[in-house]
Structure formats: C-alpha cells, structure tokens
Sequence to fold (776 residues):
Amino acid sequence: MKFGKEFESQMVQEWQKAYMDYNGLKTVLKDILRFKQGNASTPESSTARGSLKRRMSLYRAFSGLNNRYRNSPRKNDDEVILVDEVQQDGSELGPYQTTFLKPCEIGGECEPVFFRRLDDEFNKVISFYKGKVEEMIEEANELSKQMDALIALRMKVHNPMMKFDKAALEKLTSNSSTGTKSGSMHMNVIQEVEMSGERHMDDEIQETVETSGVHKRGKVVSIQGFRPASLEVLDHVKLNITPETPVSTLKKILTSDVALSFTKKELRKAEERMIQAFIEFYRKLQLLKRYCFLNLLAFSKIMKKYDKIASRKASKTYMELVENSYLGSSDEVSKLMERVEVTFIERFANGNHRKGLKILRPKTKREKHRITFSLGFFSGCSLAFVAAIVVLVHARGILRSQGRDRYMENIFPLYTLFGFIVLHMLMYSANIFFWRHYRVNYSFIFGFKQGTELGYREVFLLSSGLAVLAFACVISNLDMEMDPGGSIFRVLTELVPLGLLTVVILITICPLNIIYRSSRFFLLRCAFRCLCAPLYKVTLPDFFLADQLTSQVPAIRSLQFYVCYYGWGYFRKNSNNGCRGSDVYQAFYFIVAIIPYWSRLIQCLRRLVEEKDVMHGLNGLKYFSIVVALVMKTGNELKMGMMTWKIMAIVSSAVATIFATYWDLVIDWGLLRRNSINPWLRDKLLVPNRGVYVVAMVMNVLLRLAWMQSVLGLTETPVLHRQALIAIVACLEIIRRGIWNFFRLENEHLNNVGKYRAFKSVPLPFNYDNDEDRDD
Fold:
C-alpha cells in the first residue's frame, strides 16, 4: 500500500483537517515534475541552464563569496533552504518560515510555492499538537485532584473512625516504615498513603518537563503527576453521580449535588467512573502520540519525494528542523502515558502489570475465518430453504387450497416478525459495511466499548442464522399442515412459531458470555432506556434505537398478536377471530403503534428542557404529528368504509409526511443547502458520486408515501393477500430506515470532524467546591 493511502487510513478521522495535507503537497510536487520535464525536452533551455550554472560556479570560486558566507547559517553551496523561526512582538517564537535559496531553477516558481505550503502545514500541525498537549496536561491535573479525593474516600470507607489530618497521615506512615502492625482494618489505609513507587516518577516528570517546557502564555507548565491525597480533601468535594436509574433521576430533581456518606456503594461507583476516565484519557494520549508519529513520518516522506523529483538535498536540513521542533522533541505525551500506566496498575489492578495494561490497551478485534465460513454456510442454507418453500407451495397448491386464508390470517403474521427482524439486521449490516468503507467512526459515535463492536460480518451472521431457524420452522409447519394425519399434531403445529420466539428471547437475554453478550446487553440497556424515557438522560444510541423502533411498528403489532393468539388460547381453535373482534385488542392496536413515537417525543422534550435548544422542540412536534397521523390511519384500518376516518387519515398523514421528509433531508442528513459548493447538498460529502444523494432523497420521499396503500383502500389485491401486502409495506419502511441510517450517521460524523470531537466525555466522580477554586 502506498504511503498516501496508509497515511489516510491511520488518521483519526475527527482530526483529519489537522493532519498534514500530504496529497496537496504531492500535487505541488507533480507541478514541479511537469515543469522539469517540460524544460528538459527543450535543448536550448538545458544548454543555457548548464552554462549559467558553470558561470555561477566560477564566479563564486573567484569572487570570494565563499569566504563572505563562511560564518552564515548556510553551510555550503549545495544548501537549498534556510529555515528560521519568526520572532513575534512578544517573548514567544512564532511560526517557522522557510527561505528557498535557489529560485528560478528547475522547478521555477513551483518550488517556493511548495515550501510555503510546507511551512503552512508544519505550523498548522505544531499549533494543533501544542493545543492538544496543553489540554491533556490540564486534564491530567484534574485527574490528579480526582485521585486525591478517591484515595481519601477509600481511606475513610476502610476506616470510618479515622480523622483526616496531617498528624494521622504522619503516624500511619511512620508505623508503616517501622513495621508496626495496626490490624487488618488499618492495612488498606496504610497501602493507600504509601506512594514511594510513584514519587520517583513524579520527580522524573517534573525534571523532564522543566527542561523542555510547554510554552503557554509565556510560562512553563509542568506536569505534577498524580500526587498523594490530602486528608482534608473530602471536606471540599461532593459526589457527582449522573442519573442512571429512574429513582436517581427523581432525586436529581430535588438535589443538585450528592453529599458524601462514605459508603462502599459510593466508593464502588466512584472507582468505576475513575476507571472509565483513565481508560478514555489513556486512549486520548495514544491517539495524540499516533498523530505526532504519523505527521513526522509524512514530513519525512514528502521531503524525500521532493529531493527525488527536484534533484535537491533539502530533506536533511528540513527534517533537522522538524526533529528539533516541539513536534519532534517534546515527550510530555509519553511521560503522561507512563504516569497513567503506573497509577492505574497500582490503584486499580492491585499492582498486576499485565491486568492493568490489558484494561488500558484493549486488543484490536481480529476478523475470524470461522465467522466468514459460518455466514456463508447459513446464507447458503437460507437460499436453499427459500427454494424449498417455493417448491412446496407450488407442488402442493397451497395458494389454491381452502386453508390459504386461514394460514395467512393466523400463521403468516407470526412468522413475519422474524422476517422484519432479519431484514432490519441485513440493512444494519450493509450500513456498517459502508460506514467502514467511507471511514465513518460509528463505534465512537454509538459509544461501543473498544473491541466489542460488531462488524458487518457478525451482524450478517446473526441475521442469516435467524433466517435459517425461521425458514426451517416455516417448512416444518407447512409439512404438518399438509400432512393428512396432521390433525393429531394441530396443537404442536400452532406452537412452532411460539417455540422459535422463545428461543430468540432466551438467546437475547442469556447472561452467559456467548453470541456477543456485550452487544446484546448494550441493545437491551438502550431499549430499556427508551421505554423509561424521559427518566434517563438522552444519548445518541438511545434516540437512534428509538428511531429504529418507529420503523418496526408492524413487528411490535406481531408481538401483540402473539400475546393474544397464545395467551388467550385461540391457537387451540386455529382462529384469530377473537383477537380481531376484541375491543381490548383494538385498543392496544392503537397503543403499541404509538409507543415508539411517543418515546421519541418524550426524549425530544427532555433534551429541550436540558439543552434549551428550540430544534428539539420542533423535532418533538414532528413526532407528535406522526402520532396523530398514526392514530387516524389505524382508525381508518379498523373502521373501514367510514369517510370521516379516511379524510382525517389522508390529511394527517400528508402533513406528517411533508414534515418528516423535510426533517430527514435538511436536519438529519444536512442536505438541501442552497449556498453549498455542491448544489443542494452539503459542502463536505463522503460519497464521491453526488447522484447517490439524489437517489437517496427521491427514494426517501417515495418510500414515505407507502402509507397511501392503507388510506386509499389498497388492502388486498387478486394476487396478494392483505397480510402479504402489509408485510411488503413494512419491509419498504425498514429499507427506508436503513438508507436513513447511513446518511444520518454520516452527518453526525461530519459534525464531529468539523469540531475535532474524537473523544467521548466521561463524567468524573467528584465535584470540588467553587469556593475553594476561587480562593486558589
């Protein structure tokens, strides 16, 4: 792989504008090469250039110019560039500026342009790197204060009767040094105040940074490291616990901060928060270190290309500057990484080096061959089952049999649930494939734990496996239905779909570490938070999943049919007339369809209250219009023939469709920009072919009009049964949602890129009093 592609693949995508523009500099080098080749093709120009070079060499030899510039920064006659750091008005040194010492040779004006562009990129990289290092140092200082509070809390929890003063600390330390035995209760406290293994590291960091320094407003910022806890720190902190349960959310409304009560539960929560904060901070340092390394390598590569194309020897001079600059000589990030490793291993891994580094450095997920083989096997089996079902239906004339309507009304809705789930998983698998292809950081956006996110192969494997189970049950059900002696097995025949649903539910909630437990539990947590809205703080995975559920209304209604068909015992009679005619069933037919949209409405209202953004209120109004349209459309389905319901369904559905379509294209996708450099699209596009966006917008509009089949009375055709038509319309909505997923996340990714957001914010466990900060 060429370096340009490797360089792009290794970038932190949210920082891509802060990296050196390697491709842009390569374009300038190509201009130099074309100029050189054009001049080389002219004999007169090459002869004149050679004679001019000889005359200049003789002139320098006999004019004494060599002696005049012997003490200048220019080392010899082959020197091509001179790089200086510009002095600003203040005490700080400004950006680097390169002087090209041989103008109008070989490359013409392209070479000075190249070095001006190179200086701009180098100064941009240094400025960004300095800013990020300063942010890391400030965050390290904050983590140091948090560790002080955590260590003090540990000491208090282990020994509640202990008084926090310096005399107690000195007494404990002296007892520890003389070997005095204080009892089992005091041992944990003594271990907390012993910091001998860390003090040496703190001194080393302090000495190193003082010699190198971080220029910030003319001062040197030193890294203090994570120091021993002050015993009075608990008098100035309060516990900061983000609401995690509905009960804690209600308590949050009454009290803004939680006072420390020195319980083990508080300690455990604080430790969990600190572990997450350390892991995320260490990941930031890793990415920043990789940013530094990749840019150093890119500058080296581009200068070697320049030397080769222009036949110069400028790379050594420029790379000496790069290596001596802040980008190449600073080691604050490496020292901070060492500090974090030492502290984390000692404080959170009981000194187990391997365990601590395993938590801090999760291994990259590897693609396994057995996954590829398994998904191929299950996909082949699914196709074979589809062919078998088609042959059975055609050979036995099931479509022309008397039990056709009964099967379509009773059994077919039970199996469509699995069809909807499989199709949604296939669309999600395709989304992941294209997100990875276009380098959308979906793992960071969704907040997946590093190394546990599912790839498109894993999702495809799960969907194909579920499809195999569903098709196998369909074939077994058909065999038992068509068997002449099938009346004996009628109850067993009716229970096949319920058995499949039970297997799927048990796998989903299985606590064993099988079948991607981390992803299953992540899905269950998000689903629970959606159901409990607005008692949880709304995050992107929560409202993204709620949006997916709005496209699975037919699947939710299938679950309702499962409850009625099996719970009320209608499966024994092989009839659902009791369900369809029940007032309770019809009432819940309204309610279950509204639940996903109501959940999104409540989420929007909570975000409106918390973030004070009017756009969330407008988004909530959009979902309210959809709720109204859904009620009217459902009423029209249940009250067939009533013109009033039909008119209300048409009007409300039209308003909701226009509102939702505009929101999809303009807000969620960021398209239809009038003044964009891409006509009616965004300024920044990940897909090179603009026609893809046009086709997606048209398909979004057309697929949103699928509701017309119900309000216009197209509930059944001579070819398709009513249940089959409902399933097809539901599948079209799932396909529309899959298309929406890609462009919604693309827009979110581009927003993160525009704001350089590459990390998630981890709430810290303690809040320090503002009075103390003001006194300091």
Remarks:
- Strands lie at 81-87, 93-100, 215-216, 219-220, 237-239, 766-768.
- The first strand starts at residue 81 and ends at 87.
